[in-house]
Each structure stands twice: as C-alpha cells, then as structure tokens.
Amino acid sequence: MRLPRQAIPIAVAAILALAPASAAGEVKFKIDGRGFGHGIGMSQWGAYGLAKDGKGYAKILAHYYRGTELGERRNQSVRVLLDVRGGRVEFGNARKACGERIDPDKTYAAQLNRSGVRLEGAGGPLAACGDTLTAKGAGGKIRIDGEGNFRGDLVAASSNGALNVVNSLGLNAYVAGVVPGEMPTSWPADALRAQAVAARTYALATDVGGDGFDQYSDTRSQVYGGLETETPTTNRAVEETADQVVTYSGEVAVTYYSSTSGGQTENVENVFLGAEPKPWLVSVRDPADAASPLHRWSETYTRAEMEDRLSGLLKGKLLGIRVDKTGRSPRIVRATVLGSGGNKSVSGPELQGHLGLLSTWARFKLIR
Q1: What 3-state class would DSSP assign to 225?
Q2: 22, 42, 113, 288: which has the fewest Cβ within 10 Å?
Q3: Given the DSSP bridges, would you call strands 28-34 and 362-367 parallel, antiparallel or unpaired?
Q4: pLDDT, tens digit, 9 for 90 and up, residues 257-285
Q5: What is the pLDDT of residues 188-197, one digit of tens each?
C-alpha cells in the first residue's frame, strides 16, 4: 500500500482520547510506530534488504540519496575526539613526539601544565610542546592508553584547562574504524560498501567545529572504535570503495543515515526542523527495510506513565495527543498535547524525546 505523501487533515489525525479508568480496569495507551532513528537518507536495514536482493552499493546509495553520483576525494584526513582528560595522557608505539625522536617500545606522556603541554618519559620532562603535542605513530599506528590502538597519530591539545585527546588519521583509515561500529560486520558485502561510502562522505561533509577536532567518536558524529574494532569484512568494504564519496552537482553531499526507516524515509526539513531542504535528502519508499525487527513496533503505557513522561508539556490532566501535521512518510512534524489546563503545541522530535519513542512515526490508541 502506498504510504500517505501529504500531511493528514486534523479531522482524521490520530487522536488519543483519554477517559477516566473504568471499573473494568486501568486505562492504558498503545503507541504503534515504525522505524528506529531519524529516518533521513539511507536506512541501514533497507541497505541490508537491497543487498540481499542483489543490488550493488552504487544503486543502494542512489536509491536513498536522490540525484547523486559517486565521486572521489583523495588524500583527505580527519581529526576525531576520543576523550577529554584532566591533564595527562600516556601513549606508546610512537616514533616521534613534540619534534623529538622517541623509542616506539617505551611509554611516554603528554602532560598539561601552566605553560602548555610537555612531553614526559619515564625519567621526567623531555620537551615543551606549546599548546599541542603531536605524537607520530610507528608504522602508521599508535597506542593511546585508556583508549586503545589507532591508525595515524595522537594529538593532545590544551583546551579550557584540559587535554583534548584526538586521533588524527587518513579518511579511509578512519572509515575502517567506523563501519564495524555502525553496521553488523556479517551483513552482505554491498551493504557494508554502501555504509563505507556513506560514512566517508558524512565525515568529509560535516565538521563539529571542535577545538582541534572535526568529529566525535560517538553517535554525535559516527561511532568510531579505531584499529581494535576493524574486521576483515569491513576493511574489505573500505578498501573496495577507497576514496569514493557521494556527490550532488559535483559537491560532497551530507549523507545522513539511520537504522530503520519503517518503510519510507523522510525529507530532512521535516525531521531536523529549521533545516534547509536538500534535493538528495527527500522521502523515498523503502520496502526493503521490512527485514528490520523494528520496522514496526509498539509500546503500551498506563495513564500515569504517560503523564509522567509528558511532564513539562502537559497542563493539568492529560486529555489527548492530536497529530496536526506529518511529513511525507508520515512522521509527526507537529502535534498538540491536550490537557485539562490547556493545550501545548509540540514538534514531533520534542514529543519523541519526552515519550522515549524510537522514531517520530507513531500513532496513539486508547485501550482498556
């Protein structure tokens, strides 16, 4: 069945009509939903389904990012924030740090003091490094104590009285540490290839504007685990797509992706409210996503639980939730929380956050 493509009228919007609990038992509220995540761009479970159906990674990417092409960007690098330390980070397997040649078999430290960052060895201070210590990995790899092993280099930078612990490395090497953190490594090769290209493109197209770093190592950017998380299957996907990125009109495109679309993705401006529409980030039908265990889901709450979760939005007793505007998928764009003391207009993402929903694609039912 074709999913609705326009906002549904209020008269037929999903309304949760609340009534006092009857003698038969406590009133409960069932929330039926679809998808997991924001639903913009590539659905990872959809990529899985398409790859299982024999679609190559280029076709998978073209399906989710409309009007795009594959291009190349070579010799790119990325700086990833691993941690913020109080003042010291130890490291090993480095051949050079702060301009000094050092022994890869020994452990050294970047120590923050009043004058900046200094290099320390087992016997004490070795060199003053200014605001930043850069340690070059031996053989292209470095050990950062408390974090693990990574490709590339360590950058320890003074920032607001602490040390930003940053891994600086080539873009392809970074993607090798991202793919296994973002997608199951046993999935079909073309799904992993699509993930590699999407991750590489996203890293190149976005910048968190950090103090000495471009990306976080968690879901604020992409999940990055470094060398120890790499696997043969994901490394092969990275190597087979090396330097490839998604482009629109020749420019690197922002390639949002999420776990599960629920059967249709959404326009970016209908989820990230206030965002400018992007011609490649538009709603597309996604039947291949049906493989996901969260393609459809449901939650049931008591009246008290609903009121507790809606704290801050609810005025008086909860009388209902009215869906006023949906996107093209149809995820909730605007809704109204109806209360005995007045009504409160909320965005779909705001309602999702309060209720702890997996996505903004949700409808409400009263059950007794």
Answers
A1: coil
A2: 22
A3: antiparallel
A4: 999 999 999 999 999 999 999 999 999 99
A5: 999 999 999 9
Rounded Cα–Cα distance for residues 70 and 72 (Å): 7
Contact 88, 219 (CB under 8 A): no
Global pTM reads 0.91
Amino acid at 133: L
Residue 97's alpha-carbon distances to 70, 149, 218, in angstroms, are 38, 17, 27
- Residue with tokens 């490291």, as numbered in its chain: 91
Structural tokens at position 101: 């040649």
pLDDT for the residue 23: 38
Residue 170 · residue 76 · CB < 8 Å:
yes
Q: What is the pLDDT of residue 62?
A: 98
Residue type, 155: V
Which residues have C-beta within 8 Å of that of residue 232, sequence separation ≥ 6?
none
The alpha carbon of 108 is separated from its chain's Cα centroid by a whole number of angstroms, namely 34
Q: CA 34, CA 117: separation in Å to the nearest integer?
A: 50
